[in-house]
Amino acid sequence: MQIDFVFIDSGTGGTKIYSTLIFVVAGLIAILLGFSPKFGALIQAIPLAVMGGVSIVVFGLIAVAGAKIWVDNKVDFSNNTNLIVAAVTLVLGTGDYTLKFGGFTLGGIGTATFGAILLYAILRKR
Length: 126
Description:
two-stranded antiparallel sheet
């Protein structure tokens, strides 16, 4: 069984609740529900088309939340370094580009994160 947890920062915008304790509690509840076979059966009863639609919305919200962070921090996309890092990061993350090293697997979001850090370190002007 595989359990994936995704926390979306943009969800706090509507509620105006910014406490990290809420995310900890939500995470603990999600972990506990992950051990419940009845909850797992309920989730598996949801049609694949519905889960596909939900996935599109969730990952779309994640991408938009990332773009909002760039806008809020006034990232200069006329700078080619910033543009290339953002482009590669989006493709690695949304394409779920997975790296495997022996028994270690780094999923798309992890690959995108480390890819962004490495690319920026390599491409930035000193």
